[in-house]
Amino acid sequence: MSDGLKRKSYRGALWSGMDALGSRAMQFIVSVILARLLLPAQFGLIGMLAIFTAIAHALLNSGFASALIQKDEVTDADTSSVFYFNIVMSAGLAAVFFAAAPWIARFYRQPLLIPLARAMSLIFVADAFSVVPGAMLSRKLDFRSQTKVSIASVVCSGTLAVGLAVRGFGVWSLVALQVSHAFFRALLLWFTGCWRPSATFSVHALRNMFRFGSRLLASALLDQTFRNLFYVVIGRLYAPALLGFYTRARHMEELPSGALTNVVSRVSFPAFSSIQNDNARLTRGLRKALQLAVLWNAPLIIGLAVVAEPLVVVLLTETWLPTVPYLQLLCIAALTLPLHSLNLTILSAKGRSDLFLRLELVKKLLVAVGILIAWRWGVAALIISEIVVSIVAFFINSYFTRKFLGYGPLRQLSDVAVYFLFGAIMGAGVYAMRTLPVASDATLLLLQVSAGITVYTLLCATFRPSAFDEAWLHIRNTLSRVRA
After folding, report:
1. pLDDT digits 0-9 by tens, 142-199
2. For a Cys staple, 149 with which of 35, 188, 237, 347, CB 3.0–4.6 Å?
């Protein structure tokens, strides 16, 4: 990459990382407090609605928003048309979800879902006001503003939800958490960004973006539907408490993996799009991004799996111990997430949303087959099927990367193998510490985390893999500028 683009990408990654980690850390703190105040079954009720809110979110935040980021030049007609289109779509989605609430409750055999679903429909309206302002900030790699918005909205919504939970509002505090977060985020984005819609609506502008955006939208819908299909299957076939345990495990796994994947996709998409016609630079950028992503992802995910039991006991109490095996299995599936994200980003950056969609269709067929085979043996079997599909999906995702850039799955794995190896060595050492005679789970957790950070850092500092050297150099330069 050019020096200018590299600097912008690093700044974007830094602020996007602060956004993802900061906001998710705040969300995690809020969820821990709520988990101590509420019951697993109450989390399960909200989990039953996850697929519907995820699909609506994908409808509004994918497609045209991605097209705005990917386009070489964006006009006022483009942005305003997308904004007004999203307003109309959100109103329609809210109306449909409101009307469908009785059918949803009947499907899950949970009458309380009727008012819960109708209240959650307000999220769609709020999301519509966030899409274009957020896309315009991402287009400029301005993740600093988005970081402030994300953290502030999480703090405001979390404070409201915890206050309601303390006052005995139960599951409604979880509804308030999600609805208020969407509204706070929309409000803050509106006043933070400099973009405003004009009195312009162009069908022609929408049509020009539709070819690219519609395929990404279809891909996002497939991804969200099948990613949240586990909530539907578990909620329909098993007790709400089991869904609550799975939901908590998923949220804990997504704190590190989701944050990192979010950073990778948000920064790499606009950066790769700007050099989409230079395959040599794309290959170098992809290789570097893969190594940096796995440098952080491998120790975080392996470490989370190893310390899962004392972590759950310390943060959530023993009531949530059934979460542990689900969390550990989900961590195995999450090891490949950055690889998936970056390979798919190459297709998006090159404007090949048609191939993106084909890949998603193939992978979701595999997910469906896995669910059909595994559901008889319980929640753990369902997650194991997700692990198998995740491994196969990496080779599917990287097929076109090899075709376009000559950088296939074996070369990619070779470039990141050292970070997986260091993570495995660290994990084995930390796992062995379970036999130590310690006074409490909190003490064991503290010792394991400290040892894990020390071992992984020493391995990297001793053998000096390229991504570690580059990350350390950038951190050192950043600290020097801050001190200056």
Report:
1. 667 778 888 889 999 999 999 999 999 999 999 999 999 999 988 998 887 677 888 8
2. 188
pLDDT tens string 373-390: 998 898 999 999 999 998
Taking the CA atoms of residue 162, residue 164, residue 167 and residue 170 in that order, the dihedral angle to the nearest 10 degrees is -100
Give the residue ranges of DSSP H helices in 307-408: 308-316, 323-334, 337-349, 353-374, 379-397, 399-405
Long-range contacts of 477-481 (CB under 8 A, 24+ apart): 478/14
Residues in the chain: 484
Q: Find, among 322, 330, 343, 482, the residue nearest to 412 by Cα.
A: 343
For the whole model, what pTM was predicted?
A: 0.74
CA angle 240, 124, 345 (to 5 degrees): 90
**Residue 262, amino acid:** N
206 contacts 65 by C-beta, under 8 angstroms: no
Nearest to 209 by CA among 81, 87, 90: 81
C-alpha angle 82-86-88 in degrees, rounded to nearest 5: 125
Are 213 and 156 spatial neighbours (Cβ–Cβ below 8 Å)?
Answer: no
- Tell how far CA 275 is from the center of its chain: 25
The CA distance from 385 to 366, in Å, is: 9
